[in-house]
Design goal:
By secondary structure, the chain is α+β, with helices and mostly antiparallel strands. The chain has eleven helices and ten strands. The strands form three sheets. The chain has a five-stranded antiparallel beta sheet. The protein has a three-stranded antiparallel beta sheet with strand order 8-10-9. Strands 1-2 form a two-stranded antiparallel sheet. Strand 9 and strand 10 form a beta hairpin.
């Protein structure tokens, strides 16, 4: 038996290979055991608690934890072999880097799940929209910080001098700032949006020749859905350097129309036309505010009237304007007020 165990394979006795195999198999079995305990015992216990944080953590961390235990068994098995100091050090570093990556992924998933479970429903119930705008920023910022910290920790576990690396980045900070000038401009543009609040999510704005509804505000860019249902991505620096017209903030929409009345209408008919226009602008469904109407100019062939009315915020713009125009035509016809039509005089010589 000792002779069999003493047989060497690839520089290691068969006994060492058996020990390494036992570590690998043991890690796999313990990993499965951890998964079983989490599913059948810990989840039942967490289901009895009032909050769902423990349920979220268990659901997310169960598989990563089982994976780390399984890989740890593989690492211990490799370390039990005579593989040389450098190879053993490489295996240990690789294992620590993998643990760091899995831990970062798990932390990121737990944070996302907590946001989806608590913060997003809370934001939907609140009356304001600031939290709806901030949540995507918070999600991206926390995710970025987790992965940056994980990358630094992985570099440290790999044997790199993180302090010297950060010092080198500090010396090259000016060059980085110059290279990232546009990125910084976009970031400060997003900060300006949150501080000044010129618009909110789901509001319609006009900026740099683009007319659309704000659907997302990010750290670097924001997205608008145009009236043609196309998504336009705008750098946030544009908000700091361009005038912003918030269409949604207007209490109503002003409509100005020009009407040309025939010269056959006398002063009484013109006065009646003004009265009728004001009544239509005030009483038609979907209108708002105080309408205005008046004789704005007297031409050679017609009397020109200016009619101003307002469409209520939230009302169907086209249907309201259509209803106003049809009512004006109906009342003018009933009152025998004639509209002017283009005329042409032909002289036969």
């Amino acid at each position: 038996m000792d002779n069999i165990i003493g047989i060497e394979l690839f520089g290691n006795a068969l006994g060492r290979w058996l020990v390494a195999l036992s570590f690998v198999v043991g890690g796999f079995i313990v990993g499965k055991l951890v998964s079983w305990i989490s599913t059948n015992i810990l989840r039942r216990i967490s289901a009895k608690t009032k909050n769902r944080v423990d349920d979220i953590v268990l659901a997310v961390a169960e598989k990563p934890l089982a994976l780390i235990v399984t890989v740890a068994g593989l690492s211990f098995g490799i370390d039990s072999l005579a593989i040389g100091t450098e190879t053993a050090a490489f295996v240990d570093k690789a294992f620590m880097v993998l643990v760091t990556i899995v831990a970062a992924w798990t932390a990121n998933k737990i944070f996302d799940a907590i946001m989806d479970e608590y913060l997003i429903p809370f934001a939907r119930k609140s009356e304001g929209t600031l939290d709806d705008q901030l949540l995507p920023i918070i999600r991206k910022t926390v995710s970025t910080l987790i992965w940056v910290f994980a990358a630094l920790l992985a570099l440290k576990n790999s044997g790199y001098d993180v302090g010297a690396l950060l010092a080198g980045l500090g010396l090259g900070g000016v060059a980085v700032a110059l290279a990232a000038k546009d990125t910084l401009s976009n970031f400060f543009g997003s900060v300006a949006v949150f501080i000044d609040r010129p618009f909110k999510i789901n509001e319609r704005i006009k900026i740099a020749g683009i007319d659309g509804t704000v659907v997302e505000i990010g750290l670097r860019t924001s997205r608008l859905k145009t009236l043609e249902n196309r998504i336009v991505t705008i750098p946030n620096a544009t908000f700091a350097s361009s005038p912003i017209e918030n269409v949604s903030s207007e209490p109503n929409t002003k409509v100005v129309q020009i009407l040309d009345l025939a010269r056959s209408n006398g002063a009484a008919k013109l006065a009646e036309a003004v009265m009728l226009l004001k009544a239509v602008g005030a009483e038609t469904e979907g209108t708002d505010g105080t309408p205005a109407a008046g004789l704005s100019s007297i031409g050679d062939f017609s009397y020109r009237m200016t009619f101003v009315f307002y469409v209520k915020k939230g009302a169907d713009y086209l249907n309201t304007v259509n209803a106003v125009n049809l009512e004006v035509l109906r009342l003018f016809e009933a009152a025998d007020i004639a509209l002017a039509f283009p005329t042409r005089t032909i002289v036969n010589g």
